[in-house]
Amino acid sequence: MCQQFRDMSKLKRPRILKRRGSKVVPVATPTHHAKDWGEKCVDGFQVITQIGEGTYGQVYKARDKNTNQLVALKKVRLENEKEGFPITAVREIKILRQLNHKNIVNLREIVTDKQDALDFRKDKGSFYLVFEYMDHDLMGLLESKMVDFTESHNASIMRQLLDGLAYCHRKNFLHRDIKCSNILMNNKGEVKLGDFGLARLWSAEDRQRPYTNKVITLWYRPPELLLGEERYGPAVDVWSMGCILGELFLKHPVFQTR
């Protein structure tokens, strides 16, 4: 696949709006690999270009000055956060640190734009989540209309996605935001599931626990959530995967409607 296809499409798609009144909490100290987390400064990376806009900040393509490896820096803005990290960012970090699978995007570390933690008392800065770099997202590839996926390609993509999702479900996490823009690919044909900002821990033993049904972008949202169901499980992610499968063949969303 050509490098040019990694550019994100400008076509606007439905988004899940942040719930008002969301609280923010400070980030807890990591319980493992502490020396690798939070000690580096973003100055150790050479920012190449902005490649997207995340839930809570911009996403940049960058190069690690020490290893020369490409990474994706997901910025967490703190300017408007009075109490600390946005809760969505905290949840994504907490969940991704518990997941280790070849088909789930790898969160490598967290860095800051401050040389010292005490600097945050003087001037609020930003944190950056450092992810492995992936060349494309599936939405950009499909909408570019310059990549022709064959049945074999579609089978490979779906196999990798379902392997990653099955692992996620075995770990008792629901993703709750599966869509083409959250499916990442590289030029080696590797596919990974990304953006766990809406993911939640799920328990099969507690099926009566209610969850919000205002999750999953509209075109990928299953009927039970559209009808107001608040007690659901892994099946909601499987529906979204089915929508992805149809989209791979049709080259447009299956349920593209208001």
Automatic annotation (TrEMBL):
**Native source species:** Choristoneura fumiferana (Spruce budworm moth)
Protein origin, superkingdom: Eukaryota
Q: What protein does this entry describe? A: Uncharacterized protein
